[in-house]
Amino acid sequence: MKYSARIYAETWFSSLSEAPNSDWAKLSTNYLQHIYRHGHIKWLPEIVRLIAELEHKKNGTTPVVVTTAHNADENLVKQLTDKILPNTTVVIEQRVDPAMLGGIKLATSNQRWDASVLGHLNHLAHSLSL
Amino acid sequence: MELFSALGIDYKILIAQVINFAVLGFILYKVGYKPILKFVQDRTATIELGVKQAEEAKLAITAATADQQNIIKQAKVAAQKLLDEAKEQSLVQGQQLVERSKVAASKVVEQAKHDIRLEHDKMMQGAKAELSELVLLATEKILKQKLTAEADKSLIEKTIHEI
Questions:
Q1: pTM for this one?
Q2: Side by side, which strands form the sheet with A90-96?
Q3: Terminal CA-CA length for chain A
Q4: Count of domains in chain B?
Q5: Which end of chain A has fewer CB within 10 Å, C or N?
Q6: Of A77, A75, A130, A129, nearest to A103 (Cα)?
Q7: What is the band of A122 on the pLDDT scale with cuts at 50, 70, 90?
């Protein structure tokens, strides 16, 4: 059988969905041992990402990463996601990155929205260097 | 007879001498005259043949000389023609060479101009990039000091409001 990160993720997610919560630890241990034995442990980050993607797909949610330079108010973040992704059930992950200087940045699996000060400065620097 | 005696001639000796002379003449005619005549005739024929051959040779030489002159003349004409053609060809080739050299030189100049333009553009781009990086660094430094959490919150609110 030809393995891939997607096949691992789909079978793992399927097994977890069908098994009761009490069996999840044992099941996951078995999968991890199997992946390790076949020398595919380097695929683990991708497998985890794909499982999260399948979970969001199953639940009809969209994972969103919101990054700010300082701790942002949750209401502000909610306002932003409502405006940028209307009619979408989002699962927000907030991150703080002081290198951004200020402003806010939003990312889904297929979209990027950058209103950070660093992003503006980079854009300006790019325009100047052209 | 007496006359002969008076003259001191012995007619008997004279008759004998006449007979001797006749015999000698006959012998000489038979033995000497014919071969000599034949030899002379042969010799004459040989000389005439020689003369004839010499004349023929002279004619042949004259003809050959004429041919030779003709050939030399033709060769001279051909050589002149070749020389003219060679001159013309060398002239054409020379012109072509000059044209090619001009084109090559023009290409070299164009390439040099192009290279200089590229180098200039590259330098300008480098300078711009460096300048923009400096501006970016300076701005970042200032903003790090000036952009407080409160100011950042206001900025985010403003951004959301403008969407």
A1: 0.50
A2: A90-96, A62-68, A103-107, A112-116
A3: 51
A4: 1
A5: N
A6: A77
A7: confident
A64 strand-pairing partners = A92
Half-sphere exposure of B84 (CA within 13 A, CB side): 6
Whole-number pLDDT of residue A14: 93
Chain B residues with beta carbon closer than 8 angstroms to that of A96: none
Q: Can you give the pLDDT at residue B40?
A: 93
Give yes or no for residue B136 having a pLDDT over 90: no
Q: What is the pLDDT of residue B1?
A: 65
User: Which of B128, B133, B156 is nearest residue A104 as measured by Cβ atoms?
Assistant: B156
Residue A124 near chain B (CB below 8 Å): yes
CA A34-A39-A45 angle, to 5 degrees, is: 80
pLDDT at B145: 78
CB proximity A107 to B under 8 Å = no
State percent of chain B over pLDDT 90: 59
Q: Which residue is listed with tokens 């000060």?
A: A117
Contacts of residue A105 in chain B, CB cutoff 8 Å? none
Distance, in Å, from the CA atom of B30 to the CA atom of B24, rounded to the nearest integer, reads 10
Mention every residue, 6+ apart, whose C-beta is less than 8 A from residue B29. none
By residue range, what is the domain housing residue B149? 2-162
How far is C-alpha B51 from the chain's CA centre?
45
Per the model's pLDDT, the better-predicted residue between B146 and A31 turns out to be: A31
CB contact under 8 A, B159 and A69: no
Strand A103-107 and strand A112-116: pairing? antiparallel
Q: Give the nearest partner residue to B156 out of A72, A83, A121, using CB atoms.
A: A72
Q: Does A118 touch chain B (CB under 8 A)?
A: yes
